[in-house]
Write a structure and sequence with these properties.
- The chain is α/β, with parallel strands linked by helices and 359 residues long.
- The chain has 13 helices and 13 strands.
- The protein has an 8-stranded mixed sheet with strand order 6-7-5-8-4-9-10-11, with helices on both faces. A 3-stranded parallel sheet has the order 1-2-3, covered by helices on one side.
- It starts with 26 loop residues before the first strand and ends with a strand.
- The protein binds adenosine-5'-diphosphate (ADP) and magnesium ion (MG).
- Magnesium ion (MG) binds next to helix 4.
Length: 359
């Protein structure tokens, strides 16, 4: 479970103690399941490693054992039945006590089908969030093998999301700063990797990564591959999951199913459907779309093939240009990030009209 949580762990036998690895341990996890006493070596350990935290794993919260634990300076107690999530939470609590609590918002973009514009929307929403809020924004391309976010941002990142996931046990500010790529669009990117990851992406590591990203960035935007069902199950930290669809029947149908599934998992308030390449003259109208999705679809992104292609060719997101397409990204970003329009000031700048609800 510890390994699954991305923790670098060494097993200590009672007899082997105090033969510890060279680097001082950050935490000691003491498994006392089925036992009524703490190991005698615990107090010696505490003296030797005063900075290390102690996490107790117990079968029951026996009052006497708890009292002993308190006296022995145990920091956290995890009770059966154990899950990797609980262990991870306890570890993060004691280890990252110095980190600020998560404050940023995370938005996940998932496409109903390939090609509906999920990457385009996630890149442009992230760019617009940074433009409108002047806050730090991170885009994470969770595709393994062939993500396009870097292409749309005109960068060739040296590191990828896989480097971050493989080293998730040691993510801190400086490590993070070294793996993300700064882009001209004003956002940081954790791009996809050409390298495959053994056994696929581990959702627990993704959770840890997102938790940390939210402590560092006001907004984190995810480009999520739809094919990865386990990833869809690792989005607890997200404020909103955006389902991207087009008006075409197959993708609309698939969007309906996806939205339904995500609403059941995360609650209706956290799921938003967005229609890309909206065509007013299409036989499938706005009302039909809302019926299939089972919810209102407020954001209709117009189709602009020329602009989309031009943006791709020069590696500069449309959100940095003027026009209807950029306007629709501004409105989507504003809605997600809680950015409200205010009365226009004397200046003619469109951006002058955007301000934050929250300080
Ligand atoms: N609103 C739009 N208008 C015109 N073309 C678009 C629009 N959104 C996306 N595209 C184009 O559609 C193609 C697929 O977009 P992409 O974002 O890569 O989709 P996905 O990530 O869902 O596979 C790209 O060539 C992109 O430029
Ligand atoms: Mg894509």
């Amino acid at each position: 479970m510890l390994r699954a949580a991305g923790v670098q762990a060494t097993r200590l036998d009672r007899e082997a103690y105090p033969k510890l690895p060279a680097s001082p341990p950050v935490a000691l996890i003491v498994d006392v399941r089925g036992q009524s006493q703490l190991p005698a070596a615990l107090s010696a350990f505490r003296k030797e490693h005063p900075a290390a935290s102690v996490i107790l794993v117990t079968s029951t919260l026996d009052p006497r054992l708890m009292l002993d634990a308190m006296r022995a300076g145990v920091n956290e107690c995890v009770q059966e039945p154990l899950t990797p999530e609980m262990l991870n939470q306890a570890i993060r609590k004691v280890v990252s006590g110095s980190h600020p609590p998560p404050t940023g918002q995370v938005f996940a973009f998932v496409g109903a089908k390939g090609g509906v514009g999920t990457t385009t929307l996630s890149v442009n929403t992230a760019t617009m969030l940074a433009r409108a809020s002047k806050a730090d924004v991170l885009l994470i391309d969770l595709h393994v093998g062939h993500g396009d976010a870097a292409l749309l941002l005109g960068v060739e990142p040296r590191f990828s999301v896989i480097d971050a996931l493989e080293n998730v046990h040691r993510v801190d500010e400086s490590f993070f700063g070294s793996v993300v790529e700064k882009t001209k669009a004003g956002i940081d990117l954790l791009g996809s990797s050409d390298r495959m990851i053994a056994g696929g992406i581990d959702p627990q590591r993704v959770r840890t990564l997102l938790d940390f990203a939210a402590t560092q960035y006001r907004y984190t935007v995810l480009d999520v591959p739809r094919s990865d069902v386990t990833l869809l199950d690792a989005l607890e930290v997200t404020s909103t999951v955006v389902v991207v669809t087009s008006q075409e029947l197959p993708s609309l149908r698939s969007a309906g199913r996806l939205a339904h599934m995500l609403r059941a998992r995360y609650g209706a308030a956290r799921v938003m459907a967005v229609m890309n390449r909206f065509d007013r003259r299409s036989e499938i109208g706005h009302a039909d779309v809302e019926r299939v999705i089972g919810d209102s679809v407020k954001h209709l992104i117009p189709s602009d093939y020329r602009m989309a292609l031009q943006a791709l060719n020069v590696g500069r997101p449309v959100a940095l240009e003027k026009g209807a397409l950029a306007d629709s990204f501004r409105s989507l970003a504003g809605d997600l990030g809680g950015i409200v329009k205010q009365k226009p000031p004397s200046s003619s700048s469109v951006f002058g009209r955007l301000a934050f609800k929250r300080a």
